[in-house]
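Human: I would love a firmer grasp of how sequence relates to backbone shape in proteins. Take your time, and here it is.
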Amino acid sequence: MDIAAFEEFISQYPIFEYRILPTDTIAVEERVRMICEECPRYGSSWACPPGVGPLSVCYEKIHAFLQGIFFSSVAEVSDIMNMEELLSTRQAHEELTTEVGKYLTSLGYEIYILSTESCDICENCTYKEGKPCRFPDRMHPCLESHGVVVQEIAEREQMEYSLGGNTILWFSLVLYRERKQS
């Protein structure tokens, strides 16, 4: 990927920090999945466990790509303890993530996107009905659903993980590879 062209592209968007990571530096940890089991979205969405598949499948999905763009965006709220307000800022980050994915796709790359929280495109996910996802190209599984420890990557890459106060950092990982020729 042409880094200068990518930086010109992202300069149009409110990306706070980014790193291009080789996927062999991305660990997949069972301990993150155990936290998922405490979430009310567990077992109710294609973007969360067990809908995303076993951890071994998630590992294979991530490592089928050689690189990924790991990035963050910042949101501010009036009260960090107000979950409704906090989660309302997530959509802007998801749109930003989609734009990064579209950019890479326009360059001919295959992509796989991992992002924030659980998917909320549909009011009622088809997961519980045993039907396929209605929007598999728009749904971004959660980073943690794949066992990715966001804080460890941020620390290793010397990225901010918490800005304090009433600010939120949202993170995404857009994996990319050359499109396979058919």
Strands lie at 17-22, 67-76, 109-114, 167-178. The two ends are 21 Å apart (CA to CA). The first strand starts at residue 17 and ends at 22. The chain has one domain: 3-178.
